[in-house]
Amino acid sequence: MMKLMRIVLLTMLIQPILGPGPLGAQQGMNNQKGARNSDEWIKKEVRHELLTLPWYSVFDNLAYSVNGNEVTLLGQVVQPTLKSDAENAVKHIEGVEKVNNQIEVLPTSPMDDQIRRAEYRAIYSQDLLSRYGVGNLQSIHIIVKNGHVTLEGFVDSQQDKDAATLYAKSVPNVFSVDNHLIVNGQSNHRG
Predict the structure, then answer these.
(1) Which of 13, 86, 182, 184 falls between 20 and 30 A from 3, CA-CA?
(2) C-alpha distances in Å from residue 53, one per residue of 81, 134, 141, 164
(3) DSSP 3-state of 75
(4) SS3 (DSSP) at 13
(5) pLDDT per residue as tens digits for the range 88-146
(6) Fold of 110-183
(7) E-assigned strands of the chain?
(8) pLDDT digit string (tens) for 11-27?
């Protein structure tokens, strides 16, 4: 399940960089009536809707899976409104009949908020990793729950992945760091 979430997250994050690819171009050209209800079309629409949510930030992790006309939302968010916004955005997509919202709302904690800010500075202030913070959506997401940190997203090299772990572990009051970053080109599937 975690591997599937990582693959979906990777696909969500690198699609804006790589473009729609041959499948997207073909779907755009064919525009067949049944294409709107296909899993691939729904995945593309869900991805778009989630990435354009106004309060989606570097401290949230949104993932999803599509099975026919059912979408399962996964991940962790800081604000409960983001969980409901994600569900509302997805359930209005043509062809989606059911949304199973399994997004976890992280517990409110001033200590976790402090760790989030410190982790952001520790990771994104480094010359080696600062490029991942450029643009609206940073590619390294920092999830903090009860003092435990999980890094989600993608990086370009194993060196960058290792550096993110090193910098994340340097933050005081952190109990553990789990690095789920995916190195581009090392996953088996890209969506």
Answers:
(1) 86
(2) 11, 18, 15, 26
(3) strand
(4) helix
(5) 999 999 989 999 999 999 999 999 999 999 999 999 999 999 999 887 668 999 999 99
(6) Histidine-containing Protein; Chain: A; (3.30.1340)
(7) 61-67, 70-77, 98-101, 104-105, 140-145, 148-155, 176-179, 182-183
(8) 454 444 444 443 344 44
